[in-house]
From TrEMBL, chain A:
The keyword Lipid biosynthesis does not apply. Keywords: Molybdenum, Oxidoreductase. The keyword Iron-sulfur does not apply. This is Molybdopterin-dependent oxidoreductase. It comes from Dongia sedimenti. Residues 37-148 form the Aldehyde oxidase/xanthine dehydrogenase a/b hammerhead domain.
TrEMBL record, chain B:
Residues 4-80 form the 2Fe-2S ferredoxin-type domain. InterPro entries: 2Fe-2S-bd, 2Fe-2S-bd_dom_sf, 2Fe-2S_ferredoxin-like_sf, 2Fe-2S_ferredoxin-type, 2Fe2S_fd_BS, Beta-grasp_dom_sf, Diverse_Oxidoreductases. Pfam families: Fer2, Fer2_2. This is (2Fe-2S)-binding protein. CDD domains: fer2 (cd00207). Keywords: 2Fe-2S, Iron, Iron-sulfur, Metal-binding, Oxidoreductase. PANTHER family: OXIDOREDUCTASE WITH IRON-SULFUR SUBUNIT, XANTHINE DEHYDROGENASE IRON-SULFUR-BINDING SUBUNIT XDHC-RELATED.
Automatic annotation (TrEMBL), chain C:
This is FAD binding domain-containing protein. PANTHER family: XANTHINE DEHYDROGENASE SUBUNIT C-RELATED (PTHR42659). Keywords: FAD, Flavoprotein, Oxidoreductase. Signal peptide: none annotated. InterPro entries: CO_DH_flav_C (IPR005107), CO_DH_flav_C_dom_sf (IPR036683), Diverse_Substr_Oxidored (IPR051312), FAD-bd_PCMH (IPR016166), FAD-bd_PCMH-like_sf (IPR036318), FAD-bd_PCMH_sub1 (IPR016167), FAD-bd_PCMH_sub2 (IPR016169), Mopterin_DH_FAD-bd (IPR002346). It comes from Dongia sedimenti. Residues 1-164 form the FAD-binding PCMH-type domain.
């Protein structure tokens, strides 16, 4: 807490409208006492008499047609109650972000004739106990006809690669375009004028959030046509609205009781477990619990997308970056979920917090037969930042420049026009770096000490 | 599946309940006794959220078939505070921000209690070792380690006066 | 789904329990069996618990050590007379896990877990096995290769305590604690007149079960334990090892670092 108490108020003193009095003080968490006494109620801490358990029979194939789904052996397991397939889902096709106008509905709640990734849920089994549900789910017999699978983003976009999605393309379509694009100035002209042109490739693997509490919900029919959904979703209203549309109920028939999440990190904003559990509760009129096992959490919950990013920069000897061309691929996996939005964020984030006069960005949201990716802590931006800042360090080494000075020289200032046509405001980037340099004992030259976000001093 | 009656001493009280074969101590605590502070994060003995004390020693309740510990003594987080008076570990976890989402807290605190009950003066390395079976995804562990050491210091300071009071 | 869990009071009762139920499995501390039970392995009908058989005694007479099969790793770690095993014990799981995990169970663990079994193999330990036909002794080396059959129970493990300065152990892990083995090395090198008289080297992470590195051990015998001899022996380890790829490390990586960790084990680097 020592460092927090030393807030440097010398910066922007003229801009301050109010005295800020919370930063620098210790404010106890409101939920801490309940946490440390075990009184916090997570969704799984409630249970109801007669509660059924839901387990999924899942795809063992990356990409395959479903030839036959046979639940007869599963039905013989003691405690089996019923199975649910896509035929039981009133409105089977959805995409989470349809609530903000994203199209098309590209994901089935339960797949109809094909599976697009290993681990995809196919048949929901309801049973009296979790053990019985698990045993019955393991006994669902599924005949597949394997189809060629694609696992690489650039491979997926090559002409001749079979389309895995119903709309006939392996990428999300942005207002008629094959990717999210940014065009600012003329990068080719700038590359021709630059002292140096460097290009590097960066890529990342999917990252699982691994919350200590796995994804799940318990749905309770209230007997009056309404259903209470005890969930650990991070997005109560995404869940409520999407679930209502899927099961065909008016929104006011569902009540989501959420807000207590045993670790989310973005991993609990998808709407996967609730719709099918609500449907199961509607069809049986009994409480239903659908909780991921740890293995399911690791295997099928959406990770952070893998990304591949090419950055080409035109640089002047004095350290100014005059052009940046970025080609970026987000691996959405089999379904859109939050990735079309994440890809837009990735595009808007380029070329990083730097004022570069010529910028060209193609950000592709690509479908592959991998586990669908979705939100995670700054998704669309985090991996981009890794690539951008690695690139900045490479430029500094190339020019034998101090990496902080290189960044300060190119840092955006208030009033600069960013590549995606938003004016930069309240930047403070220069000041943050000045302070960081000071705190780490680095003596910046006079020119850099006099820089400010409020003007063009030193550029 | 014949059920059996199992008796456990939980937080000082004898508790009797009916259980199906192979029920874990964790499921018995949560489902039969409604003691839901202990969590099920993996059911594999790898996350530590179900840590309770069995005859004073921390164990993963998800790995213990309840029939095998019949008659033995169990401590869970619910038994830690004396009414409204929190255990020093609980106080320190609050004061030093050692709990965020709260899902690991029960297991963390019980693992830490298992340590402090046996070793009232642990080193930082002792604390790290004691909670090495407990996963936390929020805090980065440092706040938790600080809180356990802080609680140990508080308990050590309080110990002489407690002894006096007992006399 | 489980039909029954037996908690017998005697070994004889446990054996007849096992004999009665063909789909029964022995459970010691539960750290191996319970994850399987909860993941729902099919065909498992009953569990026979060793928890009340009083198989948790450690007896040390001179250099002769006998440990009850259901003794927890925590209890072994606290035994002063077995201090040489403490680094190995500390390298397994977490203290919480070690309060449950038993030495007997370790013999039935699949790599990359089961570092104590690696030690027992290097110590040329012997298991006492109870069967319907009575008690028998079985070298751990043989037990690891062939198992004991489904209606038998390991009741104790015996070995000779190595002399001071002749025991070496190293486990390479992804993290400092609570992590599976990348490679584990346990070696007993008895010495005479400054040279290795007899060497026995066991490896973890190099097969589904711990394996003996016989060629490397033979190369050490008659040599001084210096960098040169260790390098030569280290290069031979791979001839008896079959490193595998899993989430912790690739087969290539395991093979590559095996001689390095062997050197570190012997030289205490």
């Amino acid at each position: 807490m020592q460092d927090l108490e030393q807030i440097d108020t010398s910066f922007f003193s003229a801009e301050r409208e109010a005295e800020l009095d919370v930063v620098g003080t210790t404010v106890p968490r409101v939920d801490a006492r309940a946490h440390v006494t075990g009184k916090t109620q997570f969704y799984e801490d409630v249970s109801f008499p007669g509660m059924l358990h839901l387990k999924m029979a899942r795809s063992t194939r990356h990409h395959a047609l479903l030839k036959k789904v046979d639940t007869s052996a599963a039905a013989k397991v003691p405690g089996f109650v019923r199975a649910l397939t896509h035929k039981d889902v009133p409105n089977n096709w959805y995409t989470i972000l349809r609530l903000i106008g994203v199209e098309p509905n590209d994901e089935p709640v339960l797949p109809e004739d094909r599976v697009l990734f290993a681990g995809e849920q196919i048949v929901a089994i309801l049973a009296e106990t979790a053990e019985a549900a698990g045993e019955a789910a393991a006994k669902v017999k599924i005949d597949y006809k394997d189809l060629p699978a694609v696992f690489d983003v650039e491979e997926a976009l090559k002409p001749g690669t079979p389309a895995i999605k119903p709309h006939g393309k392996n990428h999300f379509v942005y207002e008629g375009h094959h990717c999210r694009r940014i065009r600012f100035g003329d990068v080719d002209k700038a590359f021709a004028q630059a002292d140096h042109v460097i290009e590097h490739r960066y890529q990342s693997a999917p990252i699982e959030h691994a919350p200590t509490e796995t994804t799940g919900c318990i749905v309770k029919p209230e007997g009056d046509g309404r259903f209470t959904i005890h969930s650990n979703t991070q997005a109560c209203y995404f869940t409520l609205d999407n679930a209502a549309l899927i099961v065909g109920l008016p929104f006011n028939k569902l009540r989501v009781k959420g807000g207590t999440v045993g670790g989310g990190f973005g991993g609990k904003v998808d709407v996967i477990v609730e719709p099918i559990a609500i449907l199961a509760a509607m069809l049986t009129q009994r409480p239903v619990k659908y909780a991921y096992s740890r293995e399911e959490e690791m295997q099928v919950s959406s990770p952070r997308a893998a990304e591949r990013i090419y950055i080409k920069d035109g640089i002047m000897k004095d350290g100014r970056i005059i052009a940046r061309k970025v080609t970026l691929y987000v691996d959405a996996g089999a379904y859109s979920r939050h990735s079309p939005y994440g890809t837009t964020k990735a595009a808007a984030h380029m070329p990083g917090p730097y004022s570069i006069p010529n910028v060209w960005v193609d950000a592709h949201c690509v479908y592959t037969n991998r586990t669908p990716s979705s939100a995670m802590r700054g998704f669309g931006v985090t991996i981009g930042d890794f690539a951008l800042e690695s690139q900045m360090d490479r430029i500094a080494r190339l020019l034998k420049m101090d990496p902080i000075e290189l960044r300060m020289l190119n840092a955006y200032r208030d009033g600069d026009m960013k590549a995606h046509r938003k004016k930069a405001e309240g930047c403070a980037l220069v000041e943050v770096m000045q302070k960081a340099a000071e705190m780490t004992g680095r003596n910046l030259p006079e020119r850099f000490r006099k820089m400010s976000s409020l003007n063009k001093e030193g550029v | 599946m014949p059920s059996t009656i199992v008796t456990l001493k939980v937080n000082g009280r004898a508790q009797e309940f009916l259980t199906r074969p192979g029920t874990t101590l964790l499921d018995a605590l949560r489902d039969s006794l409604s003691l839901t502070a202990s969590k099920k994060g993996c059911a594999q003995g790898t996350c530590g959220t179900c840590t309770v004390l069995l005859d004073g020693k921390p164990v993963f309740a998800c790995l213990v078939p309840v029939e095998t510990v019949a008659g033995r003594s169990i401590e869970t987080l619910e038994g830690l505070a004396a009414g409204d008076v929190l255990h020093p570990l609980q106080e320190s976890f609050i004061a030093l921000f050692a709990t965020q989402c709260g899902f690991c807290s029960s297991g963390m605190i019980m693992a830490a209690k298992g340590l402090l009950d046996r070793n009232p003066d642990p080193s930082r390395a002792d604390v790290v070792r004691a909670i090495s079976g407990n996963v936390c995804r929020c805090t980065g562990y440092e706040a938790i380690i600080d809180a356990v050491l802080d609680a140990a210091a508080k308990m050590k300071k309080a110990a002489p006066s407690r002894r006096k009071a007992a006399e | 789904m489980l039909r029954a869990i037996d908690v017998p009071q005697t070994t004889a009762e446990a054996l007849s329990s096992l004999a009665r139920a063909r789909d029964a499995l022995v459970i010691g501390g539960g750290t191996l069996v319970m994850p399987k039970v909860q993941a729902g392995i099919s065909g498992l009908g009953a569990l026979v618990s060793l928890s009340r058989l009083k198989l948790d005694k450690i007896a040390i007479k001179g250099d002769k050590v006998t440990i009850g099969a259901a003794t927890t790793l925590a209890a072994i770690g606290e035994e002063r007379g077995l201090a040489f095993l403490q680094p190995a014990i500390e390298s397994v799981g977490s203290p919480t896990l070690r309060n449950l995990a038993t030495i007997g169970g370790n013999l039935f663990t699949e790599q990359p877990y089961g570092d104590i079994a690696v030690c027992l193999l290097a110590l040329d330990a012997e298991a006492t096995v109870a069967t319907k036909r009575g008690m028998k002794k079985l070298p751990v080396a043989e037990l690891l290769k062939k198992g004991i059959g489904r209606d038998a129970i390991v009741t104790a493990i015996g070995f000779k305590k190595p002399e001071k300065g002749t025991w070496f152990y190293r486990k390479a892990m992804r993290r400092a604690a609570n992590s599976a083995s990348i490679v584990t090395i346990a070696a007993h090198c008895s010495q005479s007149k400054g040279r290795v008289a007899k060497a026995r080297i066991a490896l973890g992470g190099c097969g589904t079960k711990p394996v003996l590195a016989a060629k490397a051990a033979a190369a050490l015998e008659g040599q001084k334990l210096d960098a040169d001899a260790i390098a030569k022996a280290g290069a031979l380890l791979i001839q008896d090892a079959a490193p595998f790829t899993d989430a912790y490390a690739s087969a290539w990586y395991r093979a590559r670092v095996l001689p390095v960790h062997f050197r570190r084990a012997i030289l205490g680097e």
